[in-house]
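Justification of resources, computational component.

The compute hours requested in this renewal are based largely on the per-chain cost of generating structure records like the one below. Each record pairs the submitted sequence with a full structure-token output. That output is archived, and it is also reused by downstream analysis tasks.
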Amino acid sequence: MANDQAGRWEAELGDFAKESFEADGKRRDVFRIGSGPAVIVISEMPGLTPLVAQFGRRVAAAGCTAVLPVLFGDPGRPMSAGYALQSMGPACVSREFSAFALKRTSPITGWLRKLAAAEHERCGGPGVGAVGMCFTGGFALAMMVDDIMLAPVLSQPSLPLPLSKKFKADIGISDEDLARVKERTATGTCLLGLRFTNDPFCFEERFETLRRELGDAFIAVEIDSAPGNPHGHPKKAHSVLTEHLIDEEGTPTRAALDQTLAFFREKLGVGAGPGPRPDGLHHPDGLDH
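The structure output for this chain reads:
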């Protein structure tokens, strides 16, 4: 099994540097690619899939260092329903993830904040960015308590899990941390949120809470996934930047991807992007020059 896992990550993540980072008594693997200011890419369930890795490459192509910590799952293993359930169970009962608690910040964000601080020192720049997805979507919000977090992105934030209307509206951080986030937004820091309108895990109520609490500092991108929508998004579309991305010019998910990469570049002070990508990946904002 260990050989299978090693072979998988080498096949799917061979262009990444594999390292490790320890904080709070926890040592975890971290995959890195690119150069420039750091962006912490916190994978969705079930883990660091090939599509999450592909997003990391896009972050690197935009002129940033993509830093992908392994919080759960097997790096490089493709998404499947069975694999998602296999990863979800232990995470839901772990004390590191506040899957069922109202107004509580997941303790794992403390480790992520220390990773971000270390990467900021290593990579330089005015600060760092972060994107959380699905189960980890709200972690970028919690990381805003630190001044170095300049470009937080919440992609389909799904915690706490939607057990009732109150849970659907909760944004997954404590009142104390929310107060600190509001201090940051009052002085000009903003955040980007992405979701499909018919998402079965990230409901409109959660984005309404973010709008109410943070005002214009919260930039919401909501993509139509209602039955019969013009772009053919399935009614259970969930993962904006990975599984349900339609990577074609003129599609709303491609626009959301480009807006995310442009957000990182703008907030982190990244200049002109690199030259053409040998693997054919596009650069954001027409930077294929």
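The chain has a mean pLDDT of 90. The longest strand covers residues 26-34.
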